Amino acid sequence: MFARILAIPLLVIVAVLAFLSWKVNFSLSGFIIIPFVLGAILFVFSPQINWWWYIRHPPDLTPGLRAMIEKTPGLYQRLNAEEQLKFRQRVSLFMMAQQYLPQGVEKVSPDVEAAVAASAVTLTMGKKDFLFPKYENIVLYQHPFPSPQYPELFHISETQDEDGVLLFSIQHLMLGLLQPDQYLHIGLYEYAKVYMRSYPFARYPQVEEAHWPVLERISGFSRTAIETYLNVPDISLPALATVFYFTQPEVFRSEWPEVFEQFSVVYQG
What we know:
single chain, alpha/beta, four-stranded mixed β-sheet, 4 strands
């Protein structure tokens, strides 16, 4: 952490002043308060200081997480080497910026944190600001869960706008990330809703009930399968279409070219 590095000179100053006040002049001990005050300020603002440093010197992912991302189908595979590095750095930064809250599991593993981050970064690669500051709390369950909004429905993902919280079933999140042709990518789905609420004035294409047949053709998933899988009554069709725009781009372009171009403007700028 950069803030800890900055603290080292302050500790040295304290040690020198303590030595001089003992060996040379006790009145020098009064100056020790200065590095202590500076240290307290450094401690209070250490998150901001560290973030300032990391934004200017973004770290790459660890080898293990990089290997996972490199095996993930989707946008990352279509980027050049420079853009792939940018993607990994943004995933790393996004992981730092979130509050991960495990439910029913002792700790959220780094690969799950990276899966959440990669979902969000996929949507914001075309933007300078890649974070969603109003949605930085991520609740993670091992399996489907009920919630205050759907107390009788065991479902696999949800976004709570009032609290800025996203909820995921870890099992289904990872399946969607690694096998999006077989399992709906719920990370993209929830973050597509967050993106649309964060950028409400973008010109999103109209995706309505009448478009279920084309969504089924693009994804290979039936409407019944999707509704059963998500198990919530209010499925966002624009968010669902966004998932397939990223996970099935060639089929999407062929089946629905005008909407594909509209999404390209929205997400790629």
